[in-house]
């Protein structure tokens, strides 16, 4: 056996592109020192990464870093989807950052570099084939965010948010690592597929208390990353203290990363009868608590944060359902995973649009403000306000926000196909609670104007909002596109 | 595409495009005119739908749903969703009623925009979007598509109430939205309970149970029936209705009472009974008892009401109780009574809300205590109000009679102590209806003119007459010749009941 492992560099291309972007941004900032060039470089890199991820994925599955049949790097349909979406979200957040960077309190080079680093983590995450790659990728995705949250100079709220986020997140990572170590102790392997096969083949291992503890630790650690209740408390404080574009990144790309990690572990490695009940309980708690607390929020970003906690519950629900009913057929399992992925994609798109609208309606470098600050905004800015309303309605899951409606339909359908009717009912009733606060925000957008002067939204922000809204409308009428890519 | 399919698409697409055009045309009045034209074109496309193939000439067993025209296109295969539209004798009268009422409301808005909120053309655009949802619901032959259209109605109606309604409109609108969404999420779950078990969402294939197990049918019927009971509304899920009707602007109340409630009863007949007949048979007594409770409670509450619009709103609870009683009997007579009751209630209550709005606009109050002697100062308005009230209380020869009388007859035909008791109580409820409408007339039209009424001008505007005349004529026509509705419905109803065990 040769000690030199062959590396498939084509399969690695998306990761090279993402990491290269980060390096180039740093170099350009150092050598050219013009903010516009740096941002353009980052945007170009993100677009290139998205294109590269999609192109490599379209050519069929490629594996590398293999030991026998187990590979640490698998670039298939799912990886391509995750990589492309994360890169596009990064591009979107860069567009939203225009006003923040122009305001001058945030160093441009560092900001773009950190964002590109986070993107690299996200791109690697989708392709991870073993627990260590997965955890390192997830940490690469979140580590730059600790800094980004607190990067604004003279911002006490930002510093507080960063510390909260840092402490909670590091603990979560440690917990996941401990779980991974215990799993290794039990099974002697870290590759996801091998873990799944080993645990499925040897019932005596599954019955060990140690296995149960290991599974619980891994799931709990990852649940922190998606801000699932009861591991959610960091999210609202962090979102509210962070600059708006960073909050947008946290609630879209970072949340998607958590979902992807959880999905990879649950789908491929851990036994369904252990994770199922835990995930079902997490899902119910997450959506219910998220929605109920969101009802009482008066600050825009906090409301969006709690609502995104609730949305994480909808994403988790199909994962819990299929594992609950043991002995599901392969088809039903695949459908449930696809439903979770599809919901996550619908959600990040609508969430990005909602944050883009908040950025557009608030003064440059401002925070999210209170709901009262948004009162009458749709009368001052009919188009931006209309897009915001559409995004909120979509998050609530009602027409004309068809994208959100189909997202809910996908989840409910997967739950009923998986014989988890009660969970479908919980999801359905939560949608009613959700509507109460989404409707309150939407209605206040159309309230009689409070007389505040209209701020002219930055052009890049309006562009991002327009693209996100157009994409939401298109997949609202043709949701099959998302369902197809999610099923791959 | 055949001519019928073009018409089907036009009925849904014209109001949708009309709403868009209304919103983008420069100028408020121009927008309202465009919207009214779109509503008129919709009505003109809905009328010729009747000219289809009404018979059954094929081989094999007679299917339970035989659309006159249908259009079946794939949309989202991953969610079992097909764009499948069709029209038959059960849905066509409701389609025409919807198109007609929307046209009348748009025309009325040309003349008067309710004060309070935004521009008149936004109101017209929203009315058209509501129309898209209602028409789509009546035409959908795919369960998932039905759910989709059912949801389309919710937010535009919310916006109409919240934007142009009365003093307490926000709360009423929110209550309406949350209640209705509660119903429609149960509908979503019910729909996919059926789809997951049957593997198809095609209503033509599903009607008759499609081999669903008894347990699935009971679960599906329970979910669907609750969903439709919220929309209809059936006591005790009705409490959104009085607030929404009272606070909504006149055109909103007309659409709400006239056709929106019918989505619930139509869904109950076409979806709940059609797809889960065993469940319907099982739940029929409960449904019957609740329907009669609605009739009696609606009547008693009306006797104590002091507000004109609120009284008419509560009268809807009673009238829809008769409709639901007809459905609950699961007999041909009962379902026919429900269908004609639907149409009659739409026509008459639409008219009543128009008139109540006119009274309120003129006298600036809707309180019965401050209104009296209307016939002294505004005899035409008082006469029309008298006509509508008498039609609503079910005088033979006017539209309201057939639905109520034959719902009671159907319950008697069903026989057995329970149904005979229900028939007796429902008849008593009919008497209550007469009592409260006569009380209304005595308070409002008779007596000496109150200060609020004394200064009224006797005339009616041309726009008002244009909007009301078709409804007056229809109330007479359906009353004198119920065959207008029933002749189309008898075949489909027989076919539907053929599959109920």
From TrEMBL, chain A:
One MF annotation (Gene Ontology) recorded for this entry: NADH dehydrogenase (quinone) (non-electrogenic) activity
Keyword check for NAD: yes
Lipid bilayer topology: Multi-pass membrane protein
Cellular compartment(s): Cell membrane; Endomembrane system; Membrane
Function: NDH-1 shuttles electrons from NADH, via FMN and iron-sulfur (Fe-S) centers, to quinones in the respiratory chain. The immediate electron acceptor for the enzyme in this species is believed to be a menaquinone. Couples the redox reaction to proton translocation (for every two electrons transferred, four hydrogen ions are translocated across the cytoplasmic membrane), and thus conserves the redox energy in a proton gradient.
HAMAP family: NDH1_NuoN_1
Family membership: Belongs to the complex I subunit 2 family.
Protein name, UniProt field: NADH-quinone oxidoreductase subunit N
Natural source organism: Micromonospora marina
Automatic annotation (TrEMBL), chain B:
Pfam families named in the record: Proton_antipo_M
GO cellular component: endomembrane system; membrane
Topological category with respect to the lipid bilayer: Multi-pass membrane protein
Annotated NADH:quinone oxidoreductase/Mrp antiporter transmembrane domain residues: 140-424
Annotated compartments: Endomembrane system; Membrane
Keywords on record: Membrane, Transmembrane, Transmembrane helix
Name used for this protein in its record: NADH dehydrogenase subunit M
Protein species of origin: Micromonospora marina
């Amino acid at each position: 056996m040769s000690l030199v492992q062959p590396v498939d560099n084509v399969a690695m291309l998306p990761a090279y592109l993402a990491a290269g972007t980060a390096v180039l941004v740093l170099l350009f900032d150092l050598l050219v020192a013009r903010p516009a060039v740096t941002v353009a470089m980052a945007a170009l890199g993100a677009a290139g990464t998205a294109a590269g991820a999609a192109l490599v994925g379209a050519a069929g599955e490629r594996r590398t870093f293999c030991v026998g049949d187990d590979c640490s790097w698998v670039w298939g349909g799912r990886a391509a989807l995750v990589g492309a979406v994360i890169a596009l979200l990064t591009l979107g957040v860069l567009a939203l950052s225009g006003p923040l960077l122009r305001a001058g309190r945030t160093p441009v080079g560092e900001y773009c570099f950190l964002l590109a680093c986070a993107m690299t983590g996200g791109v690697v995450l989708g392709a991870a084939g073993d627990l260590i790659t997965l955890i390192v990728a997830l940490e690469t995705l979140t580590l730059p965010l600790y800094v980004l949250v607190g990067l604004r100079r003279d911002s006490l709220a930002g510093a507080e948010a960063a510390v909260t986020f840092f402490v909670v997140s590091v603990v979560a990572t440690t917990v996941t690592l401990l779980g991974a170590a215990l799993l290794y102790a039990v099974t002697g392997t870290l590759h996801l597929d091998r873990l799944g096969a080993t645990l499925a083949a040897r019932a005596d291992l599954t019955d060990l208390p140690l296995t149960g503890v290991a599974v619980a630790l891994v799931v709990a650690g990852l649940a922190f990353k998606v801000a699932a209740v009861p591991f959610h408390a960091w999210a609202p404080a962090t979102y509210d203290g962070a600059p708006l574009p960073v909050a947008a990144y946290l609630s879209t790309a970072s949340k998607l990363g958590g979902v992807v990690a959880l999905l990879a572990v649950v789908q491929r490695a851990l036994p369904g009868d252990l994770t199922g009940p835990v995930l079902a309980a997490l899902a119910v708690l997450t959506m219910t608590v998220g929605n109920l607390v969101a009802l009482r929020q008066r600050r825009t970003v906090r409301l969006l944060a709690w609502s995104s906690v609730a949305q994480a519950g909808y994403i988790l629900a199909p994962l819990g359902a299929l594992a609950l009913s043991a002995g599901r057929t392969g088809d039903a399992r695949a459908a449930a995973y696809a439903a979770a992925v599809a919901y996550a994609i619908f959600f990040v798109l609508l969430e990005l649009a909602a944050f883009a609208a908040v950025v557009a309606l608030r003064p440059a470098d401002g925070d999210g403000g209170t709901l009262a600050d948004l009162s009458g905004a749709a009368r001052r800015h009919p188009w931006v306000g209309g897009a915001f309303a559409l995004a909120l309605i979509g998050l609530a899951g009602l027409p004309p926000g068809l994208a959100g409606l189909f997202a809910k339909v996908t989840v409910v359908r997967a739950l009923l196909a998986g014989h988890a009717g009660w969970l479908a009912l919980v999801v359905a009733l939560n949608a009613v609670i959700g509507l109460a606060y989404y409707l309150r925000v939407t209605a206040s957008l159309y309230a009689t104007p409070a007389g505040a002067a209209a701020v002219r939204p930055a052009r890049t922000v309006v562009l991002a909002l327009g693209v996100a809204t157009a994409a939401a409308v298109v997949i609202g009428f043709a949701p099959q596109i998302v369902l197809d890519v999610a099923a791959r | 595409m055949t001519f019928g399919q073009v018409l089907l698409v036009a009925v849904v697409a014209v109001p949708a495009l009309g709403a868009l055009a209304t919103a983008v045309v420069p100028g408020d009045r121009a927008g309202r005119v465009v919207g009214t034209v779109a509503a008129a074109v919709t009505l003109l496309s809905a009328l010729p739908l009747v000219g289809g193939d009404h018979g059954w000439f094929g081989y094999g067993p007679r299917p339970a749903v035989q659309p006159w025209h249908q259009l079946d296109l794939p949309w989202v295969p991953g969610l079992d969703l097909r764009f499948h539209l069709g029209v038959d004798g059960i849905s066509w009268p409701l389609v025409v009623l919807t198109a007609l009422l929307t046209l009348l409301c748009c025309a009325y808005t040309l003349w008067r925009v309710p004060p309070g909120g935004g521009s008149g053309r936004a109101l017209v655009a929203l009315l058209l979007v509501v129309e898209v949802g209602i028409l789509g619901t009546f035409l959908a032959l795919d369960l998932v598509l039905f759910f989709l259209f059912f949801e389309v109605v919710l937010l535009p109606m919310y916006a109409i109430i919240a934007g142009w309604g009365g003093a307490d409109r926000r709360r009423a609108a929110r209550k309406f939205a949350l209640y209705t969404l509660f119903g429609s999420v149960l509908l979503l779950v019910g729909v996919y309970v059926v789809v997951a078990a049957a593997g198809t969402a095609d209503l033509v294939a599903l009607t008759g149970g499609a081999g669903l197990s008894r347990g699935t049918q009971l679960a599906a019927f329970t979910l669907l029936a609750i969903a439709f009971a919220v929309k209809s509304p059936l006591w005790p899920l009705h409490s959104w209705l009085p607030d929404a009707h009272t606070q909504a602007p006149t055109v909103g109340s007309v659409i709400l009472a006239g056709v929106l409630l019918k989505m619930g009863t139509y869904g109950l007949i076409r979806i709940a009974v059609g797809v889960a007949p065993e469940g319907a048979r099982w739940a029929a007594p409960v449904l019957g008892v609740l329907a009669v409770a609605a009739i009696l409670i609606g009547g008693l509450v009306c006797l104590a009401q002091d507000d004109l619009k609120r009284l008419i709103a509560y009268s809807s609870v009673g009238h829809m109780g008769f409709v639901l009683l007809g459905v609950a009997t699961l007999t041909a007579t009962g379902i026919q009574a429900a269908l004609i009751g639907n149409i009659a209630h739409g026509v008459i209550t639409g008219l009543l809300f128009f008139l109540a709005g006119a009274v309120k606009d003129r006298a600036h109050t809707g309180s019965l205590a401050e209104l009296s002697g209307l016939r002294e100062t505004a005899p035409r308005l008082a006469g029309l109000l008298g006509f509508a009230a008498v039609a609503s209380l079910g005088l033979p020869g006017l539209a309201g009679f057939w639905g109520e009388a034959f719902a009671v007859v159907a319950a008697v035909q069903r026989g057995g102590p329970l149904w005979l008791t229900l028939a007796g109580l429902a008849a008593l409820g009919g008497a209550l209806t007469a009592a409260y409408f006569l009380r209304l007339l005595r308070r409002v039209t008779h007596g000496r003119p109150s200060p609020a009424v004394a200064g009224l001008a006797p005339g009616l505007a041309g726009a008002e007459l244009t909007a009301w005349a078709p409804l007056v004529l229809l109330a007479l026509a359906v009353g004198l010749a119920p065959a207008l509705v029933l002749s189309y419905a008898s075949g489909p109803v027989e076919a539907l009941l053929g599959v109920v065990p």
